Structures are given as C-alpha cells and as structure tokens.
Amino acid sequence: MEFYEVLEKRRTYRDLSDREVSDEILKRVISAAFKAPTNDHLRQLEFVVVRGRENIAKVVAPLAKNMAAFKELVAEVDESGDKDKMTMFADALPKQQKMLMESGLLIIPFFRQLSCPLLKPTEQSSLNYFASAWCALENMVLAATCEGLGTVFHIPVSDEAEQIKKIVNAPQGYEFLCLLTMGYPAENAFLPRQKVINTEERIHLNVW
Ligand SMILES: Cc1cc2nc3c(=O)[nH]c(=O)nc-3n(C[C@H](O)[C@H](O)[C@H](O)COP(=O)(O)O)c2cc1C
After folding, report:
1. Among 110, 106, 149, which Cα is nearest to 129's?
2. Do 70 and 159 meet the contact criterion of CB atoms below 8 Å apart?
3. Cα(201)–Cα(180) distance, integer angstroms
4. Helical residues (DSSP H) of 17-159, grouped into ranges
5. Which of 12, 76, 82 has most ligand 1 atoms within 8 Å of its beta carbon, as the pocket-test mutant?
6. Residue 126 has what DSSP assignment?
7. Which tens digits make up the pLDDT trace of 90-132?
8. Are residues 180 and 107 in contact, defined by beta-carbon separation less than 8 angstroms?
9. What integer pLDDT is reported at residue 181 of this predicted model?
10. Residue 14 CA, closest ligand 1 atom number
11. Ligand 1 centroid to residue 140 C-alpha, Å
C-alpha cells in the first residue's frame, strides 16, 4: 500500500473478526515499532503477546469493574456536546472489553520507565520514554493497516495498569502504554464519522 493510502485507511476498529493474524504478520508489525524514533537511542520496548480469547479474558478481567471509572473519565472530557464525538463514545464504551477479545490477539506494549515514576514527571523530558513508546505504537498501527488489519487500543484507567502488570508478571521498572488489539475488520464494523480538519486553518505562519 502506498504510504498516504495507509494514513487514509487507518481507523480505530472496535469490531474485529476471529480470523487469525499469522505470526509472520505479527512479527512484521512489532518490528515496525523498532523503526520509530526513540529517546536516548534506546528502543527499550518489550511486548507481551496474548493469544486466544480465554487467555485474553483473564488479562483484561480488571476492566470489568472499572467501566464506571471509564465512563466518568468520558463525562469529564465531554464539555462540548459534540455529536460526532458522542456517537464515537456511545459505540466505544460498551465495547471496551469485547473489542480486545474478538480477534484472539492482544498485544501489551511495555517500555522502560527509568527516570521517575510515569505519573509523577518532574519535567517534560521525564516523559521521553512514554513519548518514544507512543511513536513506536503509531508505527505498529500503520504497519498493521498496511497488512489489511484494523487496530484499537484501550488506555488503562484506575488500577487496571497495576493489576494487569501483576497478571502478566511484568518486571519492576516497566510500564505499558495500552492494551492493543489488531485483527481483520468484521464485515459490518461500525466506524464513527471522522472530523474533517482544514489543515491550512491549523498552520500559523511565523506567529500564531
Ligand atoms: C491517546 C489515545 C487514547 C485512546 N483511548 C481509547 C480507549 O481507551 N478506548 C478506545 O476504544 N479508543 C481509544 N482511542 C481511539 C480514539 O477514540 C480514536 O482514535 C478517535 O476516536 C479517532 O478515530 P479514528 O482512530 O478511527 O480516526 C484512543 C486514542 C488515542 C490517541
């Protein structure tokens, strides 16, 4: 696929089929992570790959009791009454657990968080490990799109991150970005309308 076509095709798919994603494709997608820019030349990323719906259900179990917390977070960000945004949330909220299990492939991208606790940064550069990991994640999402896959991720809320780190036996000093899943889109996958942005209006020449 041509690069700009990949950019156009990348969407968040919350309805995935159970068609298996092969190990070869998975390896190519994860390899894309190591092509992203990285702080300190490090590329300290590790991936826990969970296959099979039953195994995934065990890992994402902490999400169940936190759905209320997730809804609260959503209510907090909704200050605009934006129709497209609310259509997206109405679709996304009930699917947070289900969407992670459907394709039978869950990826947990871990990164080394050395300088200080992730949630207590002392300056912007304290977040460099986190930022590098997000660069890597975007590479993966684009590579997956190029392979004909849909992707979606859930950001841990409340105590989900701590619980999940225990479940997968993550070592000290590592955090994970999100719960990422990818798979072949379901036939009737719902895609909320994307916002149309006029790029020229967002470019401020010399001064804002
Ligand atoms: C930082 C970030 C956090 C997100 N968190 C979630 C999430 O927890 N659950 C979810 O279903 N989608 C999540 N999304 C996906 C967004 O809802 C989605 O990217 C947005 O609605 C635009 O739709 P599109 O990706 O199809 O263009 C997140 C995206 C980003 C960049």
Report:
1. 110
2. no
3. 33
4. 23-33, 53-60, 63-77, 83-92, 98-101, 128-146
5. 12
6. G
7. 888 889 999 999 999 999 999 999 778 999 999 999 999 999 9
8. yes
9. 98
10. 11
11. 15
pLDDT of 85 reads 84
pTM, rounded to two decimals: 0.93
Q: Identify the burial level of 133 via C-beta atoms within 10 angstroms of its C-beta, where 0-12 means exposed, 13-18 middle and 19 or more buried.
A: buried
C-alpha pair distances (Å), 49 with each of 26, 37, 104, 179: 9, 22, 10, 10
* Dist. CA 187–CA 17, nearest whole Å: 8
Cβ contact 176:161 at 8 Å: yes
- Supply the pLDDT for residue 108: 98
How much is the pLDDT for 90? 82
Q: Which domains does the chain have, with CATH numbers?
A: 3-202 (3.40.109.10)
What are 175's strand-pairing partners? 111
The two tokens of residue 177 are 């970005």
